[in-house]
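Appendix B. Chain record.
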Amino acid sequence: MKGIILASHGKLAEGLLDSLKIFTGDPEKIEAICLMPGDDISEFVQKLKKSIEKVDTGEGVILFCDLLFGTPCNCGGSLFKTQDNLEKVQIITGMNLPMVLEYLGVRDSKLSPTEIIAVGKEGIVDFNNLYQERQS
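Structure tokens predicted for this chain:
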């Protein structure tokens, strides 16, 4: 089972983990780390490294980040300077509840990053249009 880290600006990652627990109980090998205003970037990188060590079962880690090229994503990318981390850590940006929930439900089935991202995109819907289409 791959470990999971949720990383965000502010407390989004903690809130997402809290929401996940409603659906899954207390999932194993998952951490939320939050970059708060005024936090030192090098300390955040160290938190990220410690979280990776904590959740990695030997099968690697998926790092879900809130924004492409945001600081949490860039800090994760900075770990790719070593080949070991490049092979161990998969970064997926634009995290949302549907994609992380789906991954938690089937994390042993080795979903590809493309499949995880597709689930996240499918969860983004204009509900008003969907409702009107279904009424016709």
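Further analysis of this model is presented in Appendix C.
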